[in-house]
Amino acid sequence: MKEVVEVGKLREGRFIIIDGEPCRIVGYSTSAPGKHGHAKAKIDAISFFDGQKRTVIKPTSAKVEVPIVKRGNAQVLAVVKNNAQLMDLTTYETFELPIPMELRGEIKEGVEVEYIEALGRRKIERVK
């Protein structure tokens, strides 16, 4: 799910979709309006899922898509190689997600994790 927002209303820490990837904004700067144009905003963001830095420059009056981000808590049911089988603690839905490299030693059966969901994709964020 996504919504449309004006570039001038975005701030650091908010979210944006760049090249179809949901990203968290880590840098936002604007330039003064030129002789014949609008003020421009330079947005630096890091993707949730692949960790790549992406940059976009747009007029502050332009519209961009912003992902609707949901966070959830889940319990680890099983660990199979580099994947964790999880059960959402609210809906009791079960699903499997890859374990991020930085959390490989911490995720074990019975542990509670926080995950993030955007544009129909999920990622384990941290161990609770």
Question: Which helices and strands appear, and what pairs or packs with what?
Answer:
Layout: E1 2-6, E2 15-18, E3 21-30, E4 40-47, E5 53-59, E6 63-67, E7 70-80, E8 83-88, E9 94-98, E10 112-118, E11 121-127
Antiparallel strand pairs: 1-6, 2-3, 3-4, 4-5, 7-8, 7-10, 8-9, 10-11
Characterise the protein shown here.
The structure is a single chain. With 128 residues, the chain is mostly beta strands. It folds into 2 domains: 2-67, Roll (SH3 type barrels); 70-127, Beta Barrel (OB fold (Dihydrolipoamide Acetyltransferase, E2P)). 0% of the residues lie in helices and 59% in strands. The chain is built from no helices and 11 strands. The strands form 3 sheets. It has a 5-stranded antiparallel β-sheet, with no helix packed on it. The chain has a 4-stranded antiparallel β-sheet with strand order 2-3-4-5, with no helix packed on it. Strands 1-6 form a two-stranded antiparallel ribbon. The mean pLDDT is 93.
Question: What keyword list fits this structure?
Answer:
2 domains, single chain, OB fold (Dihydrolipoamide Acetyltransferase, E2P), four-stranded antiparallel β-sheet, SH3 type barrels, 128 residues
